[in-house]
Amino acid sequence: DNNYYLKYSPHNPYRGASPYIVESSSLYNYYNFTYKSGTLLQSEWWDASTTPFIVISNNLVIPLGLSLDVGPNVTIYMHQGARIIVAGHLVTHGTIEAPILVTSYASLENKSATTGDWGCILFLGESSSTPVVLDFTFSFTNYTSFYTPLTPEMAHSRNASLLLHTIVEYAGSGGLSTVLVWQYAGVVSDHLSVRYTTRRCYEGDTSIIQIYNSNFHRCGTVNTQAVYYMYHHYGIDAVMYNTIIPDTYEGFVHDFGYYSWYDNPTMFLINNTFLRTNVRVSYKGMMFTQVIANNRFIESRVSTSIYAHPDTMSYYVNNHHREGDYSQTDFSEHAIIIGGFDYALNNVFCNNSATARTNFFYCHCNTFSGNQFLMNVGRLVTPPYFYPATRVLAFAALRVTPPPSINFNYFDNPELPYEIQNEAGYTTASLPVNASFNYFGTNNFSRISSRVNDFSLDPTRGVIAYTPFLSSWDNYTFIDPLANQYSGDY
Questions:
Q1: Residue 357, Ramachandran bin (φ over 0: left; ψ between -120 and 50: alpha; else beta)
Q2: Is the pTM of this model over 0.70?
């Protein structure tokens, strides 16, 4: 009918629709699309009232010393292979009602947008100007956290970039991650949604990454991580808070950390939801602080493997692992590994199946208290080496400290042959593992003793001191991480 119009569809990640779909290429001139590429010569502001639709036809570079601010409700269309390269600052001013969309140019050509249509958003920094980004605090008394949201004005004053209420989709050409934060860059992402990528949604390397209230989904192909971080060092902090990651091979991976004794960097992984995915954290190096608390691991398929370095101050607190089947093949014989933490407190592990694994849970932590292991199912192998709900390692092999304390936990896994098993070999000089004051779902001493696999059942194993035991479970108070869980905005 020769009338051209824009069709609007909501930002719904499960419908796969971009918010603006052009019905005719004749709209290019009618709606005044603005074309951008090359290197900015001055700082710019893109506003929906004057430049609502930006087309980036080739790489766009924001050089050191300049900034690009993008206003609410702006849509940016990326040509095939195009990248946004940020050496200066990129600050998006999206809102919950008017988010910013960065999407594929294919939707302007009446084509179906697909993963890998364009490149990435790449942030680059310099070691001489590591930004001060955001104040994040965690209470080691009641295990709650608080942060001050970064505003665009604060981002400029703190030498940082900010992705605020921004949707990024269909990126990853050439095997690139969608958002890349490299070499001392400082980026805060608050209400960021990344989806439909060919590789990782978010990747950091030797940089500050702080992610809040975000969601990453439908990312990559087989064996891809949603958020991947490596070389976290020299006082640089990493935070992921209140973020949801569903249906990804690995949800959050931290590899190869090298740390300074003096700068004491910190990593917080707080109040996130990992749905049918996992977390893998491995550390090398020196002293820093690590807190993993109030997270939800629901229907996991891949092993969750989280290590803290022996010289860290580390907490694994109030996390829930539920309904995991751990059926996918990966690097580990164990379903869940929690290693090297000073404190593993008030975590819940229930209704998980590890029938495809050698072992359900492998733990070596100094203090292990207030945890609940309920109705988990593990693999049954040839006697006498059945595998239990929990395997514990006397710490001499890992830390020069006394054996761990395993107290005030609830173990009730009737389909597993053992509840606790000592992996340390017996010697006359070895100290027993302190596992007193736990509840085993019964008051029957014979039943309890048959479910603790130590020297008394296998003379090659170290001793577990499990008496006295609790006669009931009082459901020790802990924060329920399933309450008010974040489900994403878009």
A1: beta
A2: yes
